[in-house]
Amino acid sequence: MIDIPDGLVESQYAYAGEPGRAFIAALPARVEEFVERWGLEVDGPPMHGMAALVLPVVRRADGLPAAVKFQILDAETEGEPVALRVWDGAGAVRLLDHDGATGTMLLERLDAGRMLSVLDDSREAVLVIAELLARLTAEPAPAGMRTLSDIAGQMLADVPGALPRIADPVRRGIVASCAAAVREVVGEPGDRLLHWDLHFENVLAGEREPWLAIDPKPLAGDPGFDLWPALDNRFAADEVLWRFDAMTQVLGLDRERARAWTLGRVLQNALWDVADGRELAADGMEIAGRLLGRSA
User: Fold this and answer.
1) Given 120, 191, 197, 245, the catalytic residue
2) Which domains, from first to last, does the chain contain?
């Protein structure tokens, strides 16, 4: 029996509602089930983020260090093992086993104590992200993956109802401009396999490669939609355009298309903020303003 970390319990109760409560209630038995099923020995205390429990283990059969990831199975997480199988360890953590009914995954063990965020030079970190994205998005998305086409279409449908709820006219104008940029490219949403959440803390040090991506929330789409996390991480307004230009160059992207889809990520976040009754994120508005060539 393991102790479920309080932080995971609190986040699941606060943000995941009844599915989160059910996940927490089932977790102790689920841990025991998969430790036994996959022939594992627990090899350290559990780790967690907002949505998942990660348990370090050793595989009894061969002594291989690994990690088991437990999380709610939903539209975002169900694609994770599919993407990891496609990438097969090339730039991303390797999937060793998977249970489709629960979404539980057995993963290779990386160095959880050494995230990309440990690098002092944020430009170096951004270039690592760019090089990983170039490899990951080189793969076409497999059939059945959620699509940027659907996401963008829903965003544009939500914009007319959201704009009147943004009190500040400058920020309202920026959000409207983000939507206009997405309308220009929505007819060509792309078909690459995107990570969607490749920020500094979703890159861990490995043994077989210096840095590997973890925790994808994959979808099929244009790689430009994958750039925003590295613009927002360790945010520095004066670095936005350098980071954007560096990433588009490393990935070989058309700058205007990438700009439109990056503005799409700002739009996505802004719509979530409006729906939840929050102030629009200042950093996101600044990123959009810099890409649009205006003040936020």
Assistant:
1) 197
2) 6-108 (3.30.200.20), 116-292 (3.90.1200.10)
